[in-house]
Design goal:
The chain has 606 residues and is an alpha+beta fold. Helices cover 25% and strands 26% of the residues. The chain contains 14 helices and 31 strands. Strands 5-4-8-2-1-12-15-14 form an eight-stranded mixed beta sheet. Helix 3 runs parallel beside helix 4, helix 6 crosses helix 8 and helix 9 packs across helix 10. It starts with 11 loop residues before the first strand and ends in a 16-residue tail after the last strand. The N terminus is likely disordered.
């Protein structure tokens, strides 16, 4: 019997051109060889995976038109991010302009210095044809300022050369939008982590960048994480990885992708050959390495091990999950821990970082009102839309989630005598739900499966921890959990220091209260967030937050004073009774002076 050859699906083809650098416009076209006979529908995603907020990227499409075989085709907008083309014989092409002036890791940005885009901001989805191959022709700008630009992306080259303009290919739409693109005159370096090439791309002016130090530190971090998930084979889940960093005067953030990450940082946080750092990184560089570690860990945890509702994503509406405490919180636990395991920082530095995290969680009363499971589910409307009352109303699934990871790790280690650790749980998640997730989209993990796996791997019954700390709002008993490891946790609040217990910001008139913490002196006196304090006991407040501290230093806890403040355009007076500073000051140290700590969770045997 003669076999009939299966017809290969024609690729959806995109062309993207940085058209107007000064006007921040990309010209984009998408060609569909065989459009739907009922009329092809196109849609731009409403959000980008990893950033859980509806952003409505289609609002940046300036104009759009359709044509087929040289003739215009009617195009009807059917909702805020979707269009339907009239039925026609293919190929059908849409031409549109995208305004790109969002200097973040989430969207697209274009000017005379560089271009950057995520596919969710520029590539219309062809409904019904997402599973087939998608090709992209990335063209060089015509502007003479861009004649030396290169291209950085983890997307597979089709006709383009590595770092060059030209054609690239993705297996499907999901992969297409998971490879951000940077173009410009960037600094470039490479290293291998357990044999896998990793590129470092730095855009922006960074005098005397110490790329050698950055290469060495990132190599150590990457190899430590690869070894965590694959201790036997040391096999990374990617063929190549790209760290894309935009260096600016002041900025911080990152967004994970399957084979790359987009980062933004302050240029002062990057290491300099003019003042080489000996030993541990300084505070700024340590923050940047922690960010890199966090996003790289996502290569496993959330890019391949996923919540069930993310497999696949619905890109037009919110995708609700109560599991972000696991995917963001546990990643936040491991990001700093990996710096220790990689030999970049010592235990003492790690404990300082951990103390700050514990203090930040204890700072707001929102932790007693919202669980991390609810925080995750409400990320779309609460965590990503924070306001001045957020510390009193919500908890971060990042920070408390990281402490929950610590609590699970310490509990498992203590109750199994060190035979099992959280590492074993993460490896089990990887082996069952992540390792084979691609090339076709596999299935994610449910809440019930997560809880069952913790019990199975540890050999323990951990339901109480889930009930109290994941689904509940109890404070974690970290001091008790550290005790078996010879560690002491102390909360040293500066109770003798008088305080308003409010966030203080600058304003031309005085000091703006950015947040007023529930139960604090400002709250008890009737002051509110956004009030502008102009005088304390008749003395002018000059707008510098340190000026408020200087004025309050003349008083004692319990003293009464008069505060004048503007609320909107009305001058009001408040009688304030000063309280002691309620900011937690957490320290971790060996319970016995001079005794070496054994509290640091270390890798377990595979």
């Amino acid at each position: 019997m003669k076999k009939t050859a299966q017809k290969k699906q024609s690729a959806v083809h995109y062309t993207i051109v940085p058209k107007d650098l000064a006007g921040h416009l990309f010209n984009v076209s998408v060609t569909v060889p065989v459009p739907s006979p009922e009329g092809q529908v196109f849609a731009l995603p409403a959000w980008i995976p990893g950033s859980y907020m509806i952003r409505e990227f289609a609002r940046n499409i300036v104009r759009i038109r359709a044509e087929a075989n040289g003739a215009p085709v009617a195009l009807t907008k059917i909702d805020k991010h979707s269009w339907r083309a009239a039925p026609c014989a293919g190929p059908l092409t849409l031409h549109y302009e995208v305004y790109a002036w969002d200097l973040s890791v989430r969207a697209a940005h274009l000017d005379q210095t560089h271009g950057f885009f995520n596919g969710t901001s520029v590539f219309l989805r062809v409904l019904g044809q997402e599973a087939g191959p998608h090709e992209v022709d990335i063209q060089r700008p015509g502007d003479p300022l861009a004649k030396t630009w290169r291209v950085a992306t983890a997307m597979k080259e089709l006709g383009a050369k590595r770092y060059g303009f030209g054609s690239y290919v993705a297996a499907d739409y999901d992969e297409l939008i998971d490879h951000p693109v940077e173009m410009g005159d960037f600094a470039l370096a490479s290293f291998k982590a357990h044999g896998i090439p990793h590129d470092i791309v730095i855009t922006g002016r960074v005098p005397n960048l110490d790329m050698a130090r950055l290469q060495a530190d990132l190599k150590a971090i990457c190899e430590a994480q690869i070894a965590l998930f694959e201790p036997g084979t040391k096999k990374a889940p990617v063929d190549r990885y790209v760290f894309m960093t935009m260096a600016v005067g002041d900025g911080y953030g990152g967004l994970e992708h399957r084979a790359s990450t987009a980062l933004i940082c302050a240029r002062a946080d990057l290491p300099s050959t003019a003042s080489p750092q000996v030993g541990e990184p300084n505070e700024g560089y340590l923050k940047f390495l922690g960010l890199c570690s966090h996003e790289y860990f996502h290569t496993w945890n959330v890019k391949r091990i996923k919540p069930a509702v993310f497999a696949p994503y619905d890109l037009q509406v919110e995708n609700y999950t109560p599991l972000l405490w696991l995917f963001e919180g546990f990643t936040s636990y491991y990001d700093d821990l990996m710096l220790v395991r990689a030999g970049i920082i010592k235990e003492a530095t790690y404990f300082k970082l951990l103390g700050k995290t514990i203090g930040s969680v204890l700072r707001g009363s929102g932790r007693l009102k919202q669980s991390v499971a609810d925080s995750s589910f409400d990320a779309w409307s609460k965590y990503y839309r924070q306001d001045e009352n957020s510390p009193n109303a919500i908890i971060s699934y990042y920070t408390k989630g990281s402490l929950i990871a610590l609590a699970f790790d310490l509990t498992i280690r203590a109750r199994t005598g060190g035979a099992k650790t959280l590492d074993d749980v993460m490896r089990a998640l990887w082996e069952r739900y992540g390792r084979d997730f691609y090339p076709t989209i596999g299935r994610g993990v449910t809440e019930a499966e997560v809880e069952a796996l913790f019990d199975e791997v540890s050999g323990l019954k951990l339901r109480t921890l889930f009930d109290k700390f994941v689904r509940g709002t109890d404070d974690l008993p970290l001091a008790k959990l550290f005790t078996p490891f010879g560690m002491k946790l102390v909360d040293e609040r500066k109770s003798g220091k008088p305080s308003f217990d409010a966030g203080i910001g600058r304003d031309p008139l005085g000091a703006k209260l950015t947040q007023v913490h529930e139960g604090g002196a400002a709250h008890q006196a009737g002051l509110s967030a956004l009030d502008i304090v102009i005088a304390i006991d008749g003395l002018r407040v000059n707008g510098n937050p340190s000026n408020v501290d200087a004025l309050l230093s003349r008083y004692r806890v319990g003293d009464k004073l008069t505060v004048h403040a503007f609320r909107r355009d009305e001058l009001m007076a408040f009688d304030v009774t000063l309280q002691g500073d309620r900011v937690p000051g957490i320290t971790l140290a060996p319970a016995v002076a001079g005794k070496k700590s054994v509290a640091l969770p270390r890798p377990s045997a595979a």
